User: Which sequence fits this backbone?
């Protein structure tokens, strides 16, 4: 189902509070219509998942706007999301994919073929009639991916898609992401795993405490990040680094005013 | 102890000989309770979907009320329905008092809150689970409801079993609105009450055993269907 | 899944089909002529109706639907117009029913008697007495356990009258030796049997009661224990929908030679339970 592309889309000065605490602050970022895999990284609580959810439209920001190109009506059809823990419907594997196609508005005559194709691509064909919830975790995540890709999205959001998977399953999922990217799907994902990030990312967005601290092509970012925090994060020393800053009075525990670089 | 043993023997002999009066009373009991269950379900499921999936002013109050209504004493329901259906009451013209229809009405009142409250809970927890995924897929509200109701179908079976249990075992409501009239409105529970009041404890207990066995059979049947269904987990 | 769906569908169809047939049967039942008679549980429990009604139906083709509750409840049912005929055993209440305009007249139908039953061991020492008032006084004096119906029934009202005649107010001892069950005769007898207590009961229920345990007849034969049954047709002036013709034919049949013979012909273990009033 191809409609007008939602890309490029822009977030302008997004703010979001949760439980009285500001969890996203002054986020302004644009995602262009280029074939690229963007990985958002940062420590826990940085706001990575929430940023993704705001982009995808699952969460409404308290302030700021999300601007899309293309028709409002097509937006949900043009984007898919894979969550860290896959939520599958209590039906068979193929029924899960068919349901996604049905909701996305594909013609009934196309459901079976497209679903089978999606399962073939994710290596799940032999499970087509199996209850989805009886699959292993890795297989369930692949099904979630199959379901997400079957509707031919322009953008694929993934929130720590391999965090709960064993290395073999994670590897399979990564290759599927690569395949999707090769087919011109814009990939925007979050990750905790720096090695995975190095493998997959074309571009890095580094977040800290609800703000975007740096955005750069992956090579450049890993070689020499502009932001000290980012460097500390890459080294795995972020927590120690911050404690030292607080101790030295350079940084206030509750606010990262000192590291307030402009978001890209 | 002697009485209990005799009662077991009595129940077996009644069942094996397919005692006429027993069969008549069993059939009437099932007819009334199953009809009440069916109608309560038709009323209750859409209500529970509304409660689970929409937000409206006063929703919390309605929710709490239905939960409380699950504990309605059957005899109170019987009294209220009697007052409504009595010839001196608002609906007397329909001549429903002392008929199986009146008993069905009373049992609908008893069963509906159970269907509503238990289904609502299942629907709500499933909604929490599916919410983000359904929104992510772009499901319209109507589509989301269909997906939820279908996926929750097995838990709904339990709600219906609970409702059936309530209906088949109550005596207070059907006694008052039915009048325990021989061959017309006499069901298992009212027969047991009558036999007990005649001092025929063996017969009363024997019938009680039959009633429990019946309830057990229904439960086994439903669980069997449920397992079969879950094994195939639907397309 | 399809098979499961089919199976459920089939079961549902079968059930609906059977229900409709059964409901159809109900409609057939409803199209037969019938009357609703409000009567007492003691009369019901004696088995008299099971004996009488088929004879009446054979004679007239009319079905009789008995709703058996306590006397007070039966009267209220009739006052509300939910019954066509009232058959109870408390003359003052019946006469009030007529006085209030709910029936045109009261017919004496039949009579039997009440008796005091009690434990074989007889702690109050009343066995064999024929003076019920004196017997109750002895029960009170001995503070022997006495179970009352406490439910405003004909039996209960008679019991209260007997206590009053003995000059005793038993409610002062309620919960101690005077136990009020608020239940029908059968349930009260069950309780009395379990507590090994004295109780006032009608002969009909007593003779057909199967759970006597160690209870025996203690006091009988007192004229004050005479138990009279009256039958009344609910008046059309109060309730135009009442089946006057059918109801009256029921009363007429009961009061006829045939009906009287049937009433007196009802036995349990060879004992006569009810004596027709004509």
Assistant:
């Amino acid at each position: 189902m191809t409609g007008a592309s939602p890309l490029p889309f822009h977030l302008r000065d997004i703010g979001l509070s949760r439980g009285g605490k500001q969890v996203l602050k002054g986020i302004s970022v644009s995602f262009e219509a280029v074939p690229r895999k963007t990985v958002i990284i940062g420590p826990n609580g940085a706001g990575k998942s929430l940023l993704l959810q705001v982009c995808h439209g699952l969460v409404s920001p308290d302030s700021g706007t999300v601007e899309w190109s293309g028709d409002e009506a097509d937006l949900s059809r043009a984007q898919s999301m894979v969550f860290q823990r896959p939520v599958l419907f209590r039906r068979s594997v193929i029924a899960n994919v068919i349901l996604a196609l049905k909701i996305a508005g594909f013609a009934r005559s196309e459901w079976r073929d497209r679903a089978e194709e999606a399962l073939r691509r994710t290596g799940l064909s032999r499970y087509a009639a199996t209850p989805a919830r009886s699959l292993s975790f890795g297989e369930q995540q692949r099904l979630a991916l199959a379901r997400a890709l079957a509707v031919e999205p322009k953008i694929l959001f993934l929130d720590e898609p391999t965090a709960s998977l064993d290395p073999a399953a994670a590897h399979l999922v990564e290759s599927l992401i690569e395949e999707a990217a090769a087919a011109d799907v814009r990939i925007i994902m979050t990750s905790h795993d720096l090695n995975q990030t190095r493998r997959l990312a074309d571009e890095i967005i580094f977040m800290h405490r609800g703000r975007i601290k740096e955005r750069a092509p992956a090579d450049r970012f890993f070689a020499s990040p502009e932001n000290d925090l980012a460097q500390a994060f890459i080294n795995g020393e972020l927590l120690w680094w911050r404690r030292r800053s607080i101790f030295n009075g350079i940084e206030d525990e509750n606010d990262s005013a000192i590291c307030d670089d402009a978001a890209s | 102890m002697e009485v209990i043993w005799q009662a077991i023997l009595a129940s077996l002999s009644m069942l094996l000989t397919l005692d006429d009066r027993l069969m008549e009373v069993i059939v009437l009991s099932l007819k009334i309770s199953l009809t009440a269950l069916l109608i309560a379900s038709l009323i209750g499921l859409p209500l529970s979907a509304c409660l689970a999936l929409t937000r409206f002013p006063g929703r919390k109050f309605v929710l709490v009320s239905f939960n409380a209504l699950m504990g309605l004493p059957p005899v109170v329901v019987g009294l209220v329905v009697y007052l409504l259906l009595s010839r001196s009451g608002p609906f007397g013209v329909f001549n429903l008092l002392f008929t199986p229809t009146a008993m069905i009405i009373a049992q609908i009142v008893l069963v509906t809150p159970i269907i509503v409250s238990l289904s609502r809970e299942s629907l709500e927890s499933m909604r929490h689970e599916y919410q983000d995924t359904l929104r992510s897929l772009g499901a319209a509200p109507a589509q989301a409801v269909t997906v939820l109701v279908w996926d929750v179908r097995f838990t709904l079976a339990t709600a219906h079993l609970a409702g059936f249990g309530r209906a088949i075992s109550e005596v207070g409501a059907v006694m008052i609105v039915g009048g325990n009239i021989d061959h017309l409105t006499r069901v298992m529970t009212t027969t047991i009450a009558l036999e007990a009041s005649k001092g025929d404890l063996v017969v009363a207990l024997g019938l009680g055993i039959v009633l429990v066995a019946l309830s057990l059979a229904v439960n086994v049947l439903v669980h069997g269907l449920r397992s079969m269904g879950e094994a195939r987990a639907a397309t | 899944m399809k098979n499961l769906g089919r199976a459920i569908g089939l079961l549902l169809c079968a059930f609906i089909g059977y229900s409709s047939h059964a409901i159809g049967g109900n409609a057939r039942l409803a199209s037969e002529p019938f009357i609703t008679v409000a009567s007492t549980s003691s009369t019901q429990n004696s088995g008299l109706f099971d004996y009488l009604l088929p004879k009446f139906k054979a004679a007239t083709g009319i079905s009789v639907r008995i709703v058996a509750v306590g006397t007070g409840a039966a009267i209220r049912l009739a006052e509300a117009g939910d019954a066509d005929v009232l058959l109870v055993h408390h003359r003052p209440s019946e006469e009030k029913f007529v006085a209030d305009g709910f029936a045109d007249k009261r017919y004496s139908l039949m009579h039997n008697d009440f008796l005091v039953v009690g434990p074989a061991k007889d702690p109050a020492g009343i066995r064999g007495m024929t003076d019920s008032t004196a017997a109750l006084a002895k029960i009170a004096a001995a503070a022997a356990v006495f179970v009352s119906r406490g439910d405003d029934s004909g039996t209960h009202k008679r019991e209260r009258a007997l206590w009053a005649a003995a000059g005793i107010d038993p409610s002062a001892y309620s919960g101690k030796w005077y136990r009020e069950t608020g239940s029908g005769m059968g349930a009260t007898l069950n309780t009395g049997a379990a507590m090994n207590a004295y109780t006032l009961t009608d002969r009909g229920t007593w003779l057909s009661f199967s759970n006597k345990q160690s209870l025996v007849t203690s006091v009988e034969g007192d004229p004050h224990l005479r138990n009279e049954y009256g039958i009344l047709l609910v008046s059309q002036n109060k309730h135009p929908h009442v089946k006057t013709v059918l109801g009256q034919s029921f009363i007429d049949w009961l009061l006829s030679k045939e009906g009287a013979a049937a009433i007196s012909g009802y036995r349990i273990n060879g004992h006569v339970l009810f004596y027709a009033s004509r």
Chain C has three domains: 1-30, 31-111+229-276, 112-225. The mean pLDDT of chain C is 88. The domain at 112-225 of chain C is CATH 3.40.190.10 (D-Maltodextrin-Binding Protein; domain 2). The longest helix of chain C spans residues 2-31.
